[in-house]
Design a protein that fits this description.
The strands form two sheets. Strands 1, 2, 3, 4, 5, 6, 7, 9 and 10 form a nine-stranded mixed sheet that branches. Strands 8-11 form a two-stranded antiparallel ribbon. It has about 220 residues and is α+β, with helices and mostly antiparallel strands. α1 packs antiparallel against α2. The chain has six helices and eleven strands. The chain has one domain: Gcn5-related N-acetyltransferase (GNAT) (Aminopeptidase). The chain is globular, with a radius of gyration of 17 Å. β4, α3 and β5 form a beta-alpha-beta unit. Coenzyme A binds next to α1, β4, α3 and α4.
Length: about 220
């Protein structure tokens, strides 16, 4: 069996949203909102259609990645455009076979060709350090509320791409999810049980809490 990566088309949207839902369900919290985030993201001016990919196996979508434009509000008083990667999802039964890594690498290569400087994201250090990201703190990049966060990672797309670009990472407003609308959207999918207290949720809480003030 051969996994193929290709650009997403509108005909894939619902299947990719379902892959996202299956991957994130109960992962960070009971249930998840990432499939709704993906749904609304595609209508946002920050969405980058050229960086919207699916991983396909025998005509079935098993993985997906999307990106939005974001920026570093630089300490030099300038706004530096970067990319925010995610959500990235692989169906649970296809995880740990390199598909997530291929989706991330495909995004980085295409983004580099498009002239983007860097990709940033919030995620698990165990995974993203393995995928070639570094802690954003190493480049002096903080959260929008000016904290160093363990979950914030960066990958420069060429040597020195962010040299001299310290500042605050600001994601698109699309990430402020309307929970009520997300709940309504989720009802369009098959029912799934929400479970609290699973190991991945506890790990996420620890990572999310690992923030420290500047200085
Ligand atoms: C994160 C995710 C996209 C990774 O996709 P994947 O195809 O499983 O990842 P890959 O096969 O490319 O890489 C797996 C390797 O990463 C490393 N790794 C470390 N932590 C990991 C984790 N929590 N999940 C998966 N891999 C992890 C391992 O070394 C693993 O290799 P191994 O299986 O030989 O030990 C997928 O697990 C997923 O959809 N998870 C749920 C949604 C999610 O958390 N998305 C990211 C949000 S920031």
């Amino acid at each position: 069996m051969e996994i193929k990566l290709r650009p997403e088309t509108p005909a894939d949207y619902r299947e990719a949203e379902n892959v996202t839902r299956e991957a994130f369900w109960n992962h960070y919290s009971p249930g998840c909102n990432e499939h709704y985030l993906l749904h609304v993201m595609r209508g946002s001016p920050a969405f980058v259609p050229e960086l919207d990919f699916v991983a396909e196996l025998d005509g079935r979508i098993v993985g997906h990645v999307a990106c939005t434009r974001a920026f570093v509000e630089g300490d030099d008083g300038r706004r530096h455009e970067v990319l925010c990667l995610g959500p990235v999802s692989v169906l649970p039964e296809f995880q740990r076979r390199g598909i997530g890594g291929r989706l991330i690498e495909c995004t980085r290569e295409t983004a580099r060709d498009m002239g983007f400087r860097a990709v940033l994201l919030y995620g698990d250090p165990d995974y993203y350090l393995y995928q070639g990201f570094v802690p954003a703190e190493l480049l002096g990049i903080r959260t929008a509320d000016n904290m160093y966060a363990m979950a914030l990672h960066v990958c420069e797309l060429y040597d020195g791409a962010l040299s001299g670009v310290a500042g605050r990472f600001v994601e698109d407003a699309i990430f402020d999810i309307d929970e009520a609308a997300a709940g309504v959207f989720d009802r369009e999918f098959p029912p799934k049980e929400k479970v609290a207290g699973v190991g991945a949720q506890k790990r996420f809480e620890e990572i999310a809490a690992a923030r420290k003030p500047v200085g």
